[in-house]
Design brief:
By secondary structure, this protein is α/β, with parallel strands linked by helices. About 30% of the residues lie in helices and about 25% in strands. Bound molecules: coenzyme A.
């Protein structure tokens, strides 16, 4: 069995920064309400010419550069997205084409806001089995194109961006300790798109029962972080950084409080990026990496919760 380390990270954002104040001119909302309920101050929205695939490609290029690895050495691309630009080809194969990689395995996974953990799980398993050596694991979304801009309850939450990591096989060093992912389809109606996609030709728009989603997110995340620490034989005090899905600061605070983690150990980007779904965890990872937050040997706990419901976590020893 091989191990897998993160050797590079990268990210890309929608080209237009939109503040809460900007939104309050179009919707019956306010900066105070959004900040108090979510911790969000701004978000980046894709502009004409930016697509899920182009954001994924930009993030992938930066991750390759950070790892000093040539695109032609990549043998696996896994893209997590809930907003592919088209039904097919997949975003992963579009990225492969843009990177001019003539032959590799490329696939998309769909698990909404937990998507990056699902993609990481897929790549980690293939690396462990010796089926891949260098994998681009990407989360990319253009959620602004499926937001109902007349619904203030959801329009203020979601945004666009992409994050990528290069996951490399190694025989000696352990980076990724484990990835655990779950789903429960009985909660599907609480957060879904309505009115497409498919043969209707319409784009489905996000509909959410926020309070119920909030409650479930807090309880499922508490459960999964406990389970993960126990499974891999760690204690909460062993964690150097929590890298959570960036949906709502209050959800993140609840997980940090449960783990008794000081705020300095929590990677928080929701205030600037808002909820970028599958892109949020790798975007947060890249932001912290670029800020020089992590040092070699740090223990990171990644977690996410999203539509489905889906949820998951991963423990990673930082080896860069
Ligand atoms: N601006 C101002 N007021 C708003 C508003 C907005 N953008 N959105 C909703 N409101 C109003 C509601 O209409 C409601 O008014 P009322 O009391 O007069 O009926 C009031 O604010 C409270 O609404 P509620 O939905 O109960 O607020 P909340 O405290 O649950 O916060 C969320 C709403 C969406 C921020 C919160 O439920 C949440 O974060 N849920 C989880 C979302 C999430 O993480 N989704 C993605 C999962 S990956």
């Amino acid at each position: 069995m091989y191990h897998a380390i993160i050797s590079g990270t990268g990210s890309a954002l929608g080209a237009q920064k939109v503040t809460n104040e900007d939104l309050s001119h179009k919707l019956d909302t306010s900066d105070a309400w959004i900040q108090e309920r979510t911790g969000i101050q701004s978000r980046y929205l894709a502009q004409e010419g930016q697509t899920t695939a182009s954001l994924a490609y930009d993030a992938a290029c930066k991750a390759l550069e950070d790892a000093a690895v040539a695109a032609t050495d990549v043998d696996l691309i896994v893209v997590a997205t809930a907003t592919p630009d088209m039904h097919f080809p997949s975003v992963a194969t579009q990225v492969q084409g843009m990177l001019d990689i003539k032959k590799c395995t490329a696939l998309d996974v769909s698990a909404a806001c937990s998507g990056f953990l699902y993609a990481l799980d897929t790549a980690f398993n293939k690396i462990q089995l010796g089926q891949a050596k260098k994998a681009l694991v990407i989360g990319a979304e253009v959620l602004s194109r499926i937001v109902n801009w007349e619904d203030r309850a959801t329009a203020v939450l979601f945004a666009d961006g992409a994050g990528a990591v290069l996951l490399e096989a190694t025989e000696e060093t352990q980076g990724v300790i484990g990835v655990d992912i779950y789903s429960d389809g009985s909660f599907g109606d609480l957060l879904k798109t309505v009115g497409g996609p498919g043969s209707s030709g319409q784009q489905g728009l996000i509909e959410m029962q926020g309070r119920e989603v909030f409650k479930q997110a807090v309880s499922k995340l508490a459960e999964v972080v406990d389970f993960s620490l126990e499974k891999y034989n760690f204690k909460a005090e062993d964690i150097d950084f929590l890298v959570p899905h960036q949906a709502n600061k209050r959800i993140i605070d609840a997980t940090a409080k449960k783990l008794k983690l000081d705020a300095s150990k929590v990677v928080l980007t929701v205030s600037e990026h808002a909820n970028t779904s599958a892109a949020s965890v790798p975007l947060a990872l890249d932001t912290a990496n670029k800020e020089g937050k992590f040092k070699k040997g740090d223990l990171l706990l990644l977690e996410a919760f999203g539509a489905g419901f889906t949820w998951g976590s991963s423990l990673i020893r930082w080896q860069k």
